[in-house]
Design a protein that fits this description.
This is GntR family transcriptional regulator. With 127 residues, the protein is mainly α. The protein is 56% helix and 6% strand. It is globular and about 50 Å long.
Length: 127
C-alpha cells in the first residue's frame, strides 16, 4: 500500500491518510480481511504523528470501511451487501453537494461535471 502525503496541501493529513487507504481498497491493493499496519508503524512510515493516523483509522471505522479490533489491529471490512443505507447516501450527497455547486458556479456544465467524475473514477482505479 502506497500513501502519498503532501504536507503543503490544503487537505488535512488525516484525510490524506484516510483517502489513501480508501483508494488502495478501490485499486484492489487492500482487500476485505487485510490487516492495516499498526497506528505506530504507519505513522513512522509516513512521518506523521500517531494521533493523525489514529484519527484516520477512527474515521474509516465510522464509515464502515475498517473494523478496529483491540490488540489485533484494523481490518478491512467487506463492502455492504445489498443496498447502501439511505442515511449513508444522504451523507455522501451532503459531502458532494458543495463541490458540485462550486463547479456549477464557476461555469461547468452538467456534462463537464459528469466527465470529470468519470475521469476521477478511472484515475482512482488506475486505469
Amino acid at each position: 500500500m502506497f500513501i502519498q502525503i503532501e504536507p503543503q496541501s490544503d487537505i488535512p493529513i488525516y484525510s490524506q491518510v484516510k483517502n489513501g487507504i480508501m483508494e488502495g481498497i478501490v485499486r484492489g491493493e487492500l482487500v476485505p480481511g487485510d490487516i492495516l499496519p499498526s497506528v505506530r508503524s504507519l505513522a513512522g512510515d509516513l512521518g506523521v504523528n500517531m494521533h493523525t493516523v489514529n484519527k484516520s483509522y477512527h474515521e474509516l471505522e465510522s464509515k464502515g470501511v475498517i473494523r478496529i479490533v483491540p490488540k489485533s489491529g484494523a481490518v478491512i471490512c467487506p463492502p455492504s451487501e445489498g443496498e447502501i443505507p439511505p442515511s449513508r447516501l444522504d451523507q455522501i450527497s451532503a459531502e458532494l453537494r458543495p463541490i458540485v455547486v462550486e463547479s456549477m458556479v464557476i461555469g461547468m456544465s452538467e456534462k463537464e461535471i459528469q466527465e470529470l467524475v468519470a475521469s476521477i473514477i478511472l484515475k482512482v482505479k488506475g486505469e
